[in-house]
Structure formats: structure tokens, C-alpha cells
Write a structure and sequence with these properties.
Elements: E1 2-4, E2 9-10, E3 17-18, E4 23-25, H1 28-36, E5 54-57, E6 60-62, E7 68-70, H2 72-79
Antiparallel strand pairs: 1-4, 2-3, 5-6, 6-7
Amino acid sequence: MEYPVLKKFRDKGSGKVHEIGSAYEAGEERAGYLQKLGYIGQDVPAETPEEWPKHAGGGIFELPNGEKVRGKAKAIELMGISEES
């Protein structure tokens, strides 16, 4: 699992320095030890699914197929989904 680094530290196994904000991959036992010392936080949640249509700026929205259209309503219409409030 991956864990967020809360305090900069050097991994005793690899010698690699892990910076604050980076992700650290470890097993449960090693992670528990580093969490107790305050070096890493809880496991990083899985990425959230992408939200479509994506706002590209200036009133332009990108559809999942890569097409760009002007206006969110038009993008939603072309995607064939109902607009969520």
C-alpha cells in the first residue's frame, strides 16, 4: 500500500530519502512502525474516477472521446447523460 510522507526521512532498507508529500510504499508492519514515529500517514485512497465532461477553461468542455465543445449543457447533451444538480 502507499502512504503519504508527513516528515522527511531516509529509508533504512533502500537508503532513499522520502520527501514530505511524496508517496511511500510499504507493507503493513513497516508502515505501522513509521506511522507510530509520525513519518507517514494513513494509506493513500484509490484515485477517484475522472469526472466528465472536463472543464477546459473559457466555457470549453472536453468529452471522454477527446472532443471539445462550448458549454456544459451541450457537452452533457452529447454525452447522453442527465445533468446532476
